[in-house]
Design goal:
Blueprint: H1 3-13, H2 18-25, H3 29-36, H4 47-53, H5 58-62, H6 66-83, H7 89-102, H8 107-118, H9 122-127, H10 129-142, H11 146-159, H12 162-174, H13 177-191, H14 194-214, H15 223-239, H16 251-267, H17 271-289, E1 296-298, H18 302-305, E2 309-311, E3 316-318, E4 324-326, H19 339-345, H20 351-356, H21 360-377
Antiparallel strand pairs: 1-2, 2-3, 3-4
Helix pairs in contact: 2-3, 6-7, 7-8, 8-10, 8-11, 10-11, 11-12, 13-14, 15-16, 16-17, 17-21, 19-21
């Protein structure tokens, strides 16, 4: 049933004329008629007013049952993440606003809308900061999903005004795990529980190293400098293992860096080295795919990380006492089976790969990456 049909039914149940409903909403009777004939639909700003006027919910206006809601939400994410091109920002913004109004308690949609605003151009971002603020405040007040809460803090610190910065940066400091962890380690030390202190410091080091390894250093326009930064991070991961070997936990991210390195080498006309990196990246990704989900993986020297282990394809790491803790950086240890295929097929933003896409060797590696990606489908 359409929203127009629902409005017509609710209006008649209350013995209201189209003119009376129009007056209550501050619009014309013709606009109401257009809704009820399904020629147009109410603006999202009018949905809360309509719901309040009819003493119902926005969901009820659309008359969605649970199955329909789930299908509709899945349709939204499919449109945003797969169907709409990245540069269709106006349509993405319009669709996001529509679904935020339609599902005010769906924090996944609110979270997605925040990122839609962030990825808009500067003028659109600035114009939508009030909406971003209201969504982030709602997430912080009502939502318990840590990923969404951390994103809300981060986005408001980046995009908010000076007053927002004063407010949200304090939340960021309070939620900064290594900061809290260092205080907790010091507390353990003062209490004489030295094993707990070392365990906490191991977790802190993992968080800090993940932060460092995740950083891109801002050298996008200079392939020579970016290549040095990539190689530095790869060397750092090797330093975590015995005799320069990569600890199992870092295998997938090491393969990602190999892919970056290959692209930069191709930009510098060092094609043979570039193909060598792609081949090695494929082998690392293939080996990573064979590790079962949930496996506790070594992150490096015991004297450095004190027994902390990353859990494959989970957002937690395991401490030496068996307890598990969430970390936003655990994406480094999640599935990346489709990564190589996705990057090699990407039509832009990879200047080095653009130079060699037509070569037979490139196509051979892509074919192997496509086979690897199918493991995830299974």
């Amino acid at each position: 049933m359409s929203i127009g049909t629902t409005i017509k039914r609710l209006r008649r149940e209350r013995d209201m004329t189209q003119e009376q409903l129009a007056d209550a909403l501050g619009i014309t009777a013709n606009a109401v008629s257009q809704w009820e004939c399904d020629r147009t639909a109410p603006d999202i700003s009018q949905l809360p007013v309509l719901a309040n006027l009819f003493e119902t919910t926005i969901d009820a206006l659309f008359e969605y049952d649970d199955a329909s809601k789930k299908a509709d939400v899945e349709k939204f994410f499919r449109q945003i993440r797969e169907e709409l091109p990245n540069d269709a920002m106006d349509e993405r913004l319009r669709l996001g606003k529509e679904y935020v109004a339609k599902y005010p308690k769906n924090y996944a949609i609110a979270h997605e809308m925040c990122w839609i605003i962030y990825h808009s151009d500067k003028k659109v971002r600035e114009a939508n900061v009030p909406l971003l603020r209201s969504l982030c405040e709602k997430i912080m007040a009502e939502c318990t999903v840590q990923t969404y809460r951390e994103a809300a803090i981060r986005l408001m610190c980046m995009l908010g005004n000076d007053e927002d910065w004063e407010k949200w940066s304090k939340m960021c400091a309070e939620d900064y795990k290594t900061y809290r962890g260092e205080i907790l380690a010091a507390r353990y030390w003062e209490k004489g529980t030295y094993d707990d202190c070392r365990m906490r410091k191991g977790a802190n080091k993992l968080e800090l190293f993940c932060h460092l390894l995740f950083d891109n250093a801002g050298n996008w326009s200079c392939p020579e400098k970016e290549l040095m930064w990539i190689e530095y991070r790869m060397g750092l991961m090797k330093s975590f293992g015995e005799n320069g070997t990569i600890p199992p936990a870092w295998q997938a991210y090491y393969a990602i860096l190999l892919t970056y390195k290959a692209d930069h080498l191709f930009q510098m006309d060092r094609n043979e080295e570039g193909y060598g990196c792609l081949e090695e990246a494929y082998r690392e990704f293939d080996a990573w795919s064979e590790i079962p989900d949930g496996t506790a993986l070594d992150v490096g020297h015991e004297w450095m990380f004190h027994g902390v282990k990353a859990l494959k394809n989970e957002w937690n790491y395991r401490l030496s006492d068996g307890k598990e803790e969430y970390s936003n950086y655990m994406s480094l240890f999640t599935d990346h089976y489709t990564y190589l295929e996705t990057v090699l097929k990407m039509p832009k933003n990879w200047k080095g790969f653009d130079r060699v896409r037509g070569e037979e060797r490139y196509r051979e590696i892509l074919a192997k990456a496509e086979i690897l990606a199918k493991k995830e489908e299974k």
